[in-house]
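Troubleshooting log. The previous structure file for this entry was overwritten by mistake, so regenerating from the original sequence record. Sequence copied from the archived sheet and checked twice against the printout by T.R.
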Amino acid sequence: MEGSSTSGADVSDYTRLIVEEVSYNEQELIKYCLNSDNKIGKKETATITTFIKQIVKRVHDLALKLNLTHGAYVEANKSRDKICDSLEANTLTILDLLSKNETNHQGNKSYAQTLKSKAVKKTLHSDNSVVVYPTDKTTTKNPEVIKQEMKAVFNPVAEGVKITAVRNLGEKGLLIRAAGKEDLNAIMANKTLKSIGLTVSRPMKRLPRLALFGVPSEITEDEIRESLIKLNNMEEREIMDQMKIGFKFGRKGGLTMNLTIEVSPELRNKLLNLKKVYLGWSCCRIEDFVRISRCYRCCGFNHVQKSCKAPTPTCAHCAGSHDTSTCEKKHPPTCTNCKKFHLAHDHAASDLNCPSYINALQGLINRTEYGN
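Regenerated output below.
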């Protein structure tokens, strides 16, 4: 019996050989049983039994072979998933290295490079948005029903309110973006919306994240907090109450690692002003952490391959329905995200200057509470 590393071609040949042997034994058994000269005695029974045992044995051999091949296939898929996870984890480090490399070159920065610079630019555009949800949390109303109910009682023309965008939020809400603060306040102050069972509020913003680079791999979370307090003149209350240690990223198994922390807007400002922090025996660079996850399977944002729900893969090069690694097209690239949003799409979905990628970064920054 051969090992589990058998190729698909080997399995195909092996299967064909066994089918031929089984068919031969079947024909011989039929001929033997139909021969009127053969009387079924002990000798004949033994002969028939031998044929049957040979057939059963070869079928068992085939089943074992296919089982081993299936096991090899499962292991290969596991290895592929591990590689994809590793690629996703290291994308953050690659982006950081690219960003540092770009800042070493003279010339004008691209918009994407500006977004990835060490200090977050908070003036991309005003976030004059509100979210609208049913007051009754048990309702089955979907976003389209909510939209129709709003249109029945709220007329932007009559109210003098300029609206730039309306989009669905999940299965039970709407996000409405107004042109300015006055338009936003007019929507918030409208009592009719409340009377029909709708709650209008500002979107909840996420806390800022910072990245610490070159953190000693063996350091504990308690030692990080202690170092920030005692070596960097941070107040104990701030570190204990306003900081949450996040996830590691970058190369695994080394002497150092990169680490994210979630902080309050005030603590963010204090730590960024230091530009570097002392942790145990190390001095670590600290920067804003503004990164968008891009799925290697569907090229969508804000999720990774492991949690992708797309029914089919999408190529990052040509936007076709196949894995990027198997793309054979040589013509100019097509970005699936920009094509979907009717933007210039003559670039790969992985391009750092991709308009859809930049818009995703903008959205992340606008959803983050940076304070004054």
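Residues 1-6, 102-112 have pLDDT under 50 and may be disordered. Archived copy saved in two places this time.
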